[in-house]
Each structure stands twice: as C-alpha cells, then as structure tokens.
Design a protein that fits this description.
Helix content is 43%, strand content 14%. By secondary structure, the chain is of the alpha/beta class. The protein has two domains: 30-60 and 182-358, Rossmann fold, CATH 3.40.50.1100; 65-165, Rossmann fold (3-Layer(aba) Sandwich). The strands form two sheets. Strands 1-2-10-7-8-9 form a six-stranded mixed beta sheet, sandwiched between helices. A four-stranded parallel beta sheet has the order 5-4-3-6, sandwiched between helices. It binds 4'-deoxy-4'-aminopyridoxal-5'-phosphate. Its cofactor is pyridoxal 5'-phosphate.
C-alpha cells in the first residue's frame, strides 16, 4: 500500500477514534461493555498490501467478545419478565459467555450457575468461581446427547424458581448484540470503507450479527466463515449444505460447531466463502502476533487473524479486512505456553524456531 493511502487511512482511523471515544465516566461494569478499538495489524497489513484489522474484543471489561452477548441475553430475560431481583441465570458455555454472565450477574444482583464441558481450561473454571458463579464441569458429549452441558443447564433452570436458561446458542438476542453494537462500531470505525469480514463461530452470534449489519449497509462486503478442525461449518458450506459428522478436534476453545444454530440459520446463505484453519497455522500466528505486535491473544483469535490474512490474500491488495480478536491468552496460558502441552498436541514444530523462546512453562 502506498504511503499516502496509509496516511489517509491513519487519519481516518484517528478521527473516528476521537469521534466515538467513550464518555469520560462510564456507569458501572455494564457501561464499559463494547466500543472496543479497531487495531491495525501492521506486519500482516504490510505483507498483504491490505488493511488487516482486529476488533479488540479482549478489551471488554470481562475480557472477551462474549460480554456483549451476556448483557443482551440477560437484558432480554428482564424485558420479558422471566427474571426478577434475586433470580438465577443458568447457562451452558465453553467459558467466556459464563464469565461475561458472572460479571453481569454480580453487577445486577443475580446468582449465576454455569455448566461447561470438562475439556476447558482450569483458568476459566477458577475465574468463574472467583466471580461467584457455581460451576459444573460435565463430560464433553455431543449436543444430541441429553447429558450435553446445554441440556443440563436447561433442566437445572426448569427445576428452580425465578431461574432462566439464557440459551446462548439458539437465543437470537446473542446475534442482536453484534447486530446492534459490534457491526455498527466496525462500520463507523472504518468509515464504511470495509471490504471483508471473517471470523469463526461458537454460537455464531458474532459472525451472523456483524455479517447481517455490514451486508445491509453494503451488500458487496464479503463475509467468510472460518472453521477449526472438528467443526462442520466449512464442509457444510463447501458441500452446499450437508451436515457431515464432526471429525478431529482443535486446540481452539469456544469455537467449532456441529450444527447450524438459530443464531446462524438466517445468515448461513450470506456466507461468501469458508476457510479451514489448522491448529498449526493458528498456533504459529499466536506466537507471531506476540513477537511482532506484542499481542497476547487466545487461540480462536489467532485463528481469526489467520483467516483475515488469508482473506486479504484472496481478495487482493488495497482492501480492508476486519476480524475479531476475541480474548486474551491469560485464560489458556498453562496450555498455550507449556512445552509439555504443546508436545502432547504435536504443535511445537508448528512454531518457528526463533519464536520457541516464548514457550516458558
Ligand atoms: N472465541 C472465543 C474465545 C469464545 O469463547 C467464543 C464464544 N464461545 C467465540 C470465539 C465465538 O463467538 P460466538 O459465540 O459469537 O460465535
């Protein structure tokens, strides 16, 4: 990209950052959710000749993109009169929605009960408990199994009064959070000069909400879904809509899906392309971003950045591509920076030799 275009772009970013800056005083934890910065990934932008931008969702007050959905599903339960003071929010989650909910519940005075697959990191379980949530780690079985963490959460809510199962996978208040906040923020931060959006999906709320908003603004904006091993959405898209059984697994937590959730359903036909991103590529990017840019991000975020980088190469130079940097590495550090753990996943060799100095645990 020419120096002139870089300067014009930087000015644009600067002026929108000032125009949209948060008020000086924010009302409580909830007031601090959203309005995250959009960050230019400098080295990747230089390499591709496009602007590769990351929405810094790790800067939400609960530390992840899921703070937005957590707030929306609780607000919806309140608006529908499903919960009143002293009530209980119950959710099945890989962790981040639970953490967002636990914060929102403390801020609003609700109890919080979380069911999560026992494959998730200890850091997330510890944090949930420190935030006052009651946590049930349960065996990781598919959604079709009645003992899946989501069904256990639903049954628990049915057993106790004044309790709501917020059902993040199929409750479209989740997608609405991104349609009403993340999408408009990206549109304004880029001054509408955006060519592509890509991210992976857990519930699909981020992908669907942002895609819908951006395509309503400009139908020419491309939206690519990014998928890790063990997820079916890549093959679903490439095969024209066949749900193929999940195969394999991934080091990425919080993403990968075995079905088309309600949050995703209406946007599944808006997908322009799908990208399969291996764990090798994600872990390499995670270490690269630490070394080149100083970002300490989780594996789903690294996967998203690989997708944005690949999308930039596919669309060609001079474009603006946005993805989500969903959370920080703090929640996974005893895994992602542990030689023993990386060895157990055969991933040490995927990290370039000169970056292996960061494997310190
Ligand atoms: N990254 C991380 C770390 C997550 O926890 C999640 C949500 N589980 C996602 C990405 C995916 O977000 P969404 O649920 O909006 O698809």
């Amino acid at each position: 990209m020419s120096l002139l275009k870089t300067q014009i772009f930087s000015c644009r970013l600067f002026s929108t950052a000032v125009a949209n800056s948060k008020p000086k005083i924010i009302d409580g934890f909830i007031g601090a959710i959203g309005n995250t910065p959009l960050i230019r990934l400098r080295k990747l932008s230089e390499e591709t000749g496009s602007e590769v931008l990351g929405k810094a969702e790790f800067m939400n007050p609960g530390g992840s993109v899921k703070d937005r959905a957590a707030l929306y599903v609780v607000k919806e339960a309140e608006e529908k009169g499903l919960i009143t003071t002293g009530g209980t929010i119950i959710e099945g989650t890989a962790g981040n929605t639970g953490i967002g909910l636990a914060h929102v519940c403390r801020a609003k005075g609700y109890d919080c009960i979380i069911y999560m697959p026992n494959t998730q990191s200890q850091e997330k379980i510890d944090l949930l408990r420190m935030l006052g949530a009651k946590v049930y780690p349960v065996p990781a079985v598919p959604f079709e199994d009645p003992n899946n963490y989501n069904h256990q959460a639903r049954r628990h809510a049915e057993r106790i009064p004044n309790a709501v199962w917020t059902n993040q996978f199929d409750n479209v208040a989740n997608r609405r959070a991104h349609y009403e906040t993340t999408g408009p923020e990206i549109w304004e931060q880029t001054n509408g000069q955006i060519d592509g959006f890509t991210c992976s999906t857990g519930t699909g709320g981020t992908f669907a909400g942002v895609t819908r908003y951006l395509k309503e603004k400009n139908p020419n904006i491309k939206s690519f879904i990014a998928d890790p091993p063990g997820s079916v959405l890549y093959s679903y898209f490439k095969s024209g809509g066949n749900l193929i059984e999940r195969k394999g697994s991934s080091i990425t937590e919080g993403i990968g899906q075995g079905r088309v959730t309600e949050n995703l359903k209406e946007e599944i036909n808006s997908i322009d392309d799908a990208l399969f991103i291996s764990d090798e590529k994600s872990i390499e990017m995670l270490y690269r971003l630490l070394d080149e840019e100083g970002f300490y991000i989780g594996a789903s975020s690294a996967l998203n950045v690989v997708a944005a980088y690949e999308m930039a190469k596919i669309l060609g130079p001079g474009k603006t591509i946005v993805t989500a940097i969903c959370d920080g590495a703090y929640r996974y550090q005893t895994r992602l920076f542990s030689r023993k753990w990386l060895e157990s996943k055969n991933l040490v060799d995927a990290i370039p030799k000169h970056l292996q100095k960061y494997i310190i645990l």
